[in-house]
Each structure stands twice: as structure tokens, then as C-alpha cells.
UniProtKB/TrEMBL annotation:
The keyword Ribosomal protein does not apply. Its EC number is 2.1.1.67. This is Thiopurine S-methyltransferase. It catalyses: S-adenosyl-L-methionine + a thiopurine = S-adenosyl-L-homocysteine + a thiopurine S-methylether. GO terms for cellular component: cytoplasm. It is found in: Cytoplasm. Belongs to the class I-like SAM-binding methyltransferase superfamily. TPMT family. It comes from the Bacteria.
């Protein structure tokens, strides 16, 4: 989407995608990645997600990137955290304990700036990308992380029911995007709930992508 679309969403507080309780598929199944304490989890397009704090609470180091500086600042403020802020490679980096969030464009993030990644958590990120940007997104993500394993959450619904985002990204699309990079394993599938259920019916699906 056009960056202005997202900046406007944050400005108008139209953030129905934000889950007050964090994501239930993540908390129920993330152990399948078998991470160790101190492992580094990358969250692309992280918003001000409560999953950031949840992952840090599990002993992970968390690194995210989010286009909206307002969202990044809201994350730290709402969690009562003071962040150290610096400018790096055209992005702003906010750090507090095990949490490091970049404010800026995902496509401007380099492997060097990101640093080592043990796993990726993609929720409402791939599905936020319109079709024309999905291949670039997927390839940049794999390259940035050195093909780190992913815990991926997608939606599958009939796209004629509503316009994205979030877009419907069925299993075949995931396979095509990550062909030769990841093997897809199903983890769980539940009925779409929450505000999106007012627009369409379908499933919310969790996958493990292993290199
Ligand atoms: C649907 S929201 C999901 C946020 C978060 N993952 C969550 O679960 O709450 C998508 C987010 O991606 C951000 N975004 C969109 N394009 C981006 C880009 N090119 N670089 C970084 N963030 C981007 C938007 O500002 C928005 O906060």
C-alpha cells in the first residue's frame, strides 16, 4: 500500500488489526519453533503489537520494523518503557532492554542493520501487502534474515467478500512466494474472528515455515 495509507490509519486511530490481548495462535503454538532464551525474533511490520512484549516475556530478544514512528513511540509509551533513540541508515532505532524497534520502511532495512535473526514472527504483515508487492516482500524478508524459520499467520477468505488489507493469502500463494526457500507446515486454523469477521468469513491460519 501507499505509505500514506498506513500513516493516515495510525493518525486516525483506525487500527482494527491491533489485538488488545495479543495473538492467541502465537501464544498457543510459538513453542514449536523451539527457541532458546536470548534468541532473536524479527517482527516485520510490527505496529505496536502486544506480541512484542509477549515474546520478550518469553525470554526472546525482539527486533521489529514499523513504518509509523507514531506507532513505535506508542508501543514504548503504552508499555511504560523508556527507549534510547538513534538514527541509523535513514531509519530511527528505539531500544529498551530486549526490545529494539526500527521506525521506517521495511524495504530500506538491510541485513547489516537488522543483525542476526533466529526466527521471524509474521502476523498481519504478509497479508498487509498488496499482490504486486508480495514477492519483493517475501524475498527481502528471507534475505534479511538468512532464511530464518518463520511463524506465519495468514487469512484465507474469498477476496470478493471484501477488499484488503488484510488480503487473503491462501496456502498455494505462500508456497509460490517462498518456493525453494521454505517448506510450509500447518500449525492451526481457526475461524476468522474480531472486526474482520464483520467483513468476511474464512480462516486465520498459522504456519511454520522451515528453510
Ligand atoms: C495490518 S498492520 C499489522 C501490525 C502488527 N503486525 C500487528 O499484528 O498488530 C500492518 C502494519 O505494517 C506497517 N507497514 C506497512 N508498510 C510498511 C513498510 N513498508 N515498512 C514498515 N512497516 C510497514 C503499517 O504501518 C501497519 O502498522
Amino acid at each position: 500500500m501507499d505509505p500514506n495509507f498506513w500513516h493516515q490509519r495510525w493518525q486516525d486511530n483506525k487500527i482494527a488489526f491491533h489485538e488488545a490481548e495479543g495473538n492467541a495462535l502465537l501464544s498457543s503454538h510459538f513453542h514449536l519453533l523451539s527457541l532458546q532464551k536470548g534468541d532473536r525474533v524479527f517482527i516485520p511490520l510490527c505496529g505496536k503489537s502486544n506480541d512484542i512484549g509477549w515474546l520478550a516475556g518469553q525470554g526472546c530478544r525482539v527486533v521489529g520494523i514499523e513504518l509509523s514512528q507514531a506507532a513505535v513511540e506508542a508501543f514504548f509509551a503504552e508499555n511504560g518503557l523508556e527507549a534510547e533513540v538513534s538514527r541509523v541508515g535513514g531509519l530511527r532505532r528505539y531500544r529498551s532492554g530486549p526490545i529494539e524497534l526500527f521506525a521506517g520502511d521495511f524495504f530500506k532495512l538491510s541485513k547489516e542493520l537488522l543483525g542476526p535473526v533466529d526466527a521471524i514472527y509474521d502476523r498481519a504483515a504478509l497479508v498487509a501487502m498488496p499482490e504486486r508487492m508480495r514477492t519483493s516482500y517475501a524475498h527481502h524478508l528471507a534475505k534479511l534474515s538468512g532464511n530464518a524459520p518463520q511463524f506465519l499467520i495468514t487469512f484465507d477468505y474469498d477476496q470478493s467478500q471484501t477488499e484488503g488489507p488484510p488480503f487473503s493469502v491462501p496456502a498455494e500463494t505462500i508456497d509460490r512466494l517462498y518456493e525453494g526457500i521454505y517448506r510450509r507446515e500447518p500449525v492451526a486454523s481457526v475461524e476468522i474472528a474480531g472486526p474482520l469477521a464483520e467483513r468476511c468469513s474464512g480462516t486465520e491460519n498459522a504456519w511454520l515455515l522451515r528453510p
